[in-house]
Write a structure and sequence with these properties.
The protein has helices at about 20-30, 55-75, 100-110, 130-140, 155-160, 180-190, 210-220, 250-255, 280-285, 290, 315-320, 325-345; strands spanning about 90-95, 115-120, 145-150, 165-170, 200-205, 225-230, 245, 260, 300. With about 350 residues, it is of the alpha/beta class. It has a five-stranded parallel β-sheet with strand order 7-6-5-8-9. Strand 5 (about 200-205), helix 7 (about 210-220) and strand 6 form a beta-alpha-beta unit. The protein is globular. The protein starts with 17 loop residues before the first helix and ends in an 11-residue tail after the last helix. The structure holds N-carbamoyl-L-aspartate (NCD).
């Protein structure tokens, strides 16, 4: 009988094709990266923001730098700028959301846009309308920017192909959630002073998580060493192609990490028994003060929300102001979304150099 295929084992990188690829990836991700836009290159030549994949480090840095002014503005009493006055922003959310929808709504309003929200309950998708018809309808309303969340991976890209205005992906299925990765990068950069060279452990339901995917790409592009920590059932099968170091042992996975990013157990995307029970999941993969002691002494704890307290994270860790950046992530979310809305509408607003 042939020996069993090597699999992700406790504390070790996935072998079986992963070894050499992993070493190569590690070597390339530790190369110094310049985050400054090269001379003669446009800082952000993209019409839409559908994902982090394909963005250069300097394009990510550009959006983070742009967001800084909005962090500052949002901390003033007035919190207002009029640069999107007269523009219509449609937030078309085909999947339930509280914080992301609110964040995009606040971001648009703080920039002076007329913001309209279309929730899943109001959408004609429930009446059987096709995605293309929905796109054509949204387009006919002459929106200036459309923010879309959809439960199907790739749906946002499909709509973007059919409309005349910029489209921002607010999360599509298991695919991408680019503004979440940007707000996470901004939070890390502000707290740690850098991203390059940090060890970031992304932990939990990696298999179903668009947040994990966008963060793996964003943080890797920015020069961080990215680990993913998940039970074998929640580890994506193609993880050895993602330039990360995978672990199935939680404590080994977060050992010495500068950032511990927890993910929500995505029960709505699970069709079967991916975890034996929430209690057991918490025992092995939930972040507690005892487990956090394995990370770097000043490790930052993050979670995109909404949290399942007592499942992937214990309240005492989530609410620890010294360690947890969770509310700061929410604050950075508004600033990053203001930056994206501003940058993506510059061409329509005739901003010099963006036409
Ligand atoms: C994330 C999402 O929707 O993908 N949440 C969010 O954007 N606020 C993460 C999650 O739902 O677990």
């Amino acid at each position: 009988m042939p020996p069993p295929m090597p699999r992700a084992s406790a504390g070790h990188p996935v072998a079986g094709g992963g070894g050499a690829a992993y070493q190569r990836a590690l070597m390339s991700s530790s190369l110094p990266r310049s985050a400054a836009t090269p001379d003669g290159v446009h800082p952000f030549p993209h019409r839409h923001l559908l994902g982090i994949a394909g963005l250069h480090a300097w394009e990510i840095s550009f959006l983070l730098d742009e967001a800084e002014q909005w962090v500052a503005l949002n901390r003033t009493p007035t919190k207002h700028d009029d640069r999107l006055a007269g523009l219509t922003q449609i937030n078309a959310f085909f999947e339930n959301s509280t914080r992301t929808l609110l964040s995009f709504e606040i971001a648009g309003k703080r920039l002076g846009a007329d913001v309209v929200n279309m929730g899943v309950a109001q959408s004609s998708v429930k009446k059987g309308e096709t995605l293309i018809d929905t796109a054509v309808t949204l387009n006919a309303m002459r929106s200036d920017v459309i923010v879309i969340r959809h439960d199907a991976s790739g749906a946002v890209g499909l709509i973007a192909d059919k409309v005349d205005c910029p489209v921002l992906n607010a999360g599509d299925g298991r695919h991408e959630h680019p503004t979440q990765a940007l707000l996470d990068a901004l939070t890390i950069r502000r707290r740690k002073g850098k991203i390059a060279g940090l060890t970031v452990a992304i932990c939990g339901d990696v298999l179903h998580s668009r947040v994990a995917r966008s963060n793996i790409i964003a943080l890797g592009t920015m020069g961080a060493q990215v680990r993913v920590v998940a039970p074998p059932t929640l580890m994506p099968p193609a993880i050895d192609r993602m330039s990360v170091e995978p672990f199935t042992d939680f404590e080994k996975g977060i050992a010495g990490a500068d950032v511990v990013m927890m993910l929500r157990l995505q029960r709505e995307r699970m069709a079967g028994g991916f975890v034996p029970s929430e209690r057991e999941y918490h025992a092995f993969h939930g972040l507690t003060p005892e487990k956090l002691a394995h990370a770097a002494p000043d490790a930052l704890v993050m979670h995109p929300g909404p949290m399942n307290r007592g499942v992937e994270i214990t309240s005492s860790v989530a609410d620890d102001p010294q360690r947890s950046a969770i509310t700061e992530q929410v604050e950075m979310g508004v600033a990053v979304r203001m930056a994206c809305l501003d940058v993506l509408t510059r061409s329509r607003r005739g901003v010099e150099g963006w036409a």
